[in-house]
Give the backbone structure.
Amino acid sequence: MKSVNLKELARQLNLSISTVSKALNDSYEITPETKRRVQELADSLHYQPNPYARSLRKQKSKTIAVIIPEIANNFFTLAINGIESIARQHGYHVLIYLTHEDYQKEVEITQLLQNGRVDGVLMSLSSNNNENEHLYDLHKKMLPLVFFDRVFEDLEAAKVTTDDYESGYKATAHLIEQGCRRIAHLAIPKDLSIGKKRMQGYMQALNDHQLPVQDDLIIACTDNQQMNYAFIRELMERKDRPDGIFASVEKLAINTYQACSELHIAIPEEVKVISFANLETAAFLNPSLTTITQPAFEIGKQAASILFEAIRMKNIKNHYSILKSVLIKRKSTGC
Amino acid sequence: MKSVNLKELARQLNLSISTVSKALNDSYEITPETKRRVQELADSLHYQPNPYARSLRKQKSKTIAVIIPEIANNFFTLAINGIESIARQHGYHVLIYLTHEDYQKEVEITQLLQNGRVDGVLMSLSSNNNENEHLYDLHKKMLPLVFFDRVFEDLEAAKVTTDDYESGYKATAHLIEQGCRRIAHLAIPKDLSIGKKRMQGYMQALNDHQLPVQDDLIIACTDNQQMNYAFIRELMERKDRPDGIFASVEKLAINTYQACSELHIAIPEEVKVISFANLETAAFLNPSLTTITQPAFEIGKQAASILFEAIRMKNIKNHYSILKSVLIKRKSTGC
DNA sequence: TTTTTTTACGAAAACGTTTTCTAAAACGAA
DNA sequence: TTCGTTTTAGAAAACGTTTTCGTAAAAAAA
């Protein structure tokens, strides 16, 4: 592990450490000939500057953090792909932190990042989110911060989301057009802004089509998949069960398929299903699943780009991007 | 960003920097009363040591790197979950690098890590892998290194894989039992050890059942999904098309479903399909997909545990773990 | 009492950079 | 020649820790 450093280069070249450093950083103070000599030796010894020494001195880490609730979710993996591609372009390194939808973990992680370890943070909130002190803390540290998808509306930070209200509306309207009259909503927690917006779109669509909003058709789901499954099953076992289901995340659609399969309820004949999803396999499910698909890769790219802009400008902008999701009609809604 | 450091603590407490440092590190040299005072002020000011200064001084980064070919793949996301859980236990940070199956990127990334940025590396190889100079380089640096799934057999490093040969054998034998006689193998590159082993299992199973190994039924797939799709389509358009397909990764199974759907070839009646896969949706595909499922989460956990063992012992062991995959029979093979 | 040991802390070096400040040499102008 | 300016390089400080070493004072031993 004994790697070559500036001192060693300086010794071999009979130069001072500072001269070598300047030569490698292409300073005008150094004569071309010296630069050449230094560069040559550095190359031949495969010199690489120590990142920690450099970070300490420059107060820059060339590292960003990505905090997400989970990773076994196609939306987030695609977003990470986008983030990584931009980070690579900027020569940055990417730290990954998973909160597992656990508020306490989210707090711990944000605290870990308050000491200069990273130059910026990309974050998608966990749902068990009552207080938000930790987010204000992060913000107070002047650490560039960009939220994506699950954003925290109250904070003056950059945000990138999709048109969740419109998508919720369109999803619900689509079910109505396909003949549904009793439409259930499998909702994610309302403390997430996207949960609230999707729900609002759902309710507005019902209103606009003279359908009642029924509380017993709104299922408050959580990160506990077993409980979600139990809720959905209970829902589908009712005698006045819904004829349409709008799932707000892909896992809930899968749970719905499973419940319907076990209860021998035919999709789309007896109940139609639409879901937010980035599933590669949506088209090959039985039946193929009608989805609202978010431009996850693009979200990641935009969020990262904005973050680097903020890092460069040392200026946390109050940016708000809203990208469009697309509704892909398939058999689960009778198309 | 002006965060509190040892100097500031020392000033406020009228102590020296070294005393404060020792107090916080619970050194025996410091009296309990002083420790209490120091700790109290540190807590109240939310002191957090600068990670770069600490890393520089201790020559330890508390960070590991995970290098994988892609992330939009359930195997890898589950593995990352496992890795992250162990890393968190050890108080380590996790850097993610994606090679996108690109040899050149893999080389660049391994070079980035030769300067002490990380204390260890977890790696799953990219497939376009002709030379391996960069892996030997990494190994020479004495950087603890653990391969998982796509391992490099020739290097004396720790490795964690599944029983790929046996799984390939069982998958093929299962197709044979289900009545298939012309079984195609959608193969990943043979320069990947898992590709070779899965293929060997396939061939041995054919042999053991007195079936010929036919080169034209072995499709060499790559990371180019469009080409793979074209190959598979061509395969299924032949008049002597196969009656069984063994796909070595989940993406190829999806391609197969798509090709069969477009060509109106019925699964499992006309062709049976089995695939390595960690798809959550396997059971809900049309038809449900028979899979060989790897214990991806467990692989991640084991690989990470071994890495931390290597970091602790400063001893790169020649460890080789082989976990068992499980064959889950579903409708795509007529079950 | 004197000597030795232990205790509790501080000074300073070290980690490997970057950057500021200083200085010698070379050069040009007067 | 002399004086100022430019060019090139080195010395030293700085980033924030940890750790080694030194040293007073206190405690223990003689």
Notes: Residues 15-19, 22, 29-31, 34, 53, 55-59 of chain A lie near DNA strand D (CB under 10 Å from a C1'). The mean pLDDT of chain A is 95. The two ends of chain A are 62 Å apart (CA to CA).
